[in-house]
Amino acid sequence: MSARRILQLGNPLLRAVSTPSSDSGECERILTDLRDTLHEFQRTRGFGRGISAVQIGEPKRLLYLEFRGRPYTLVNPEWDWRSEETFRLWDDCFSFPDLLVYVERSCAVRVRYQDLCGASHVLEAENDLSELLQHEMDHLDGILTIDRAIDRNSFCTREEWLRQGHPATRPEAFASKT
């Protein structure tokens, strides 16, 4: 197992803009580490759906997601399109897992990326998968969820969230379209 330490809020590398990678061996190694790190986070924290390479100290354009039982490995993802229609939700992050941030995201997106063999693909996503992609793509550009907060009242600790009677599951279940 190759789970790695997840960089925490305040680490300047989280603000780095990730660079493309063309070395398939490097990509495969980092993506394996991302998968193992995600699984370790899920095991210890009880949630988690995706992680970017920069969060484990590798500022490369690589994402690993697990969504509804399906793994996604995205090499050098780039935006192709984002809908103007948006929704709002409480978001969290492995780099500050005890803080929730109220943000606005596009309802649908389209991302171009490569697989480990270098073949090009397009991923179209709506709602929860769209939100997850936007969160992880932001990491690749040095943007954190806290930068997307709607206003100064858009922050809540996980402890307070639970104290207010919200479920312990991910708060995206409370998304609202705008």
The helix/strand class is: alpha+beta
Q: What is the fold named in CATH at topology level?
A: Peptide Deformylase
Summed up, the helix count is 3
Major β-sheet annotation: 5 strands, antiparallel
Per DSSP E runs of 2 or more residues, the count of β-strands stands at: 9
Q: Summarize model confidence as the mean pLDDT.
A: 94
Strand order of the largest sheet: 1-2-3-6-7
Question: Gap between N and C termini, in Å?
Answer: 42 Å
Kindly provide the radius of gyration, computed on alpha-carbon positions and rounded to a whole number of angstroms.
16 Å
The stretches of 5 or more residues where confidence is low (pLDDT under 50) are 172-178
H/E element string?
HEEEEEEEHEHE
Give the arrangement of secondary structure elements.
Blueprint: H1 24-45, E1 50-52, E2 62-67, E3 70-82, E4 86-91, E5 99-106, E6 108-114, E7 120-126, H2 127-140, E8 155-157, H3 158-163, E9 176-177
Antiparallel strand pairs: 1-2, 2-3, 3-6, 4-5, 4-9, 5-8, 6-7
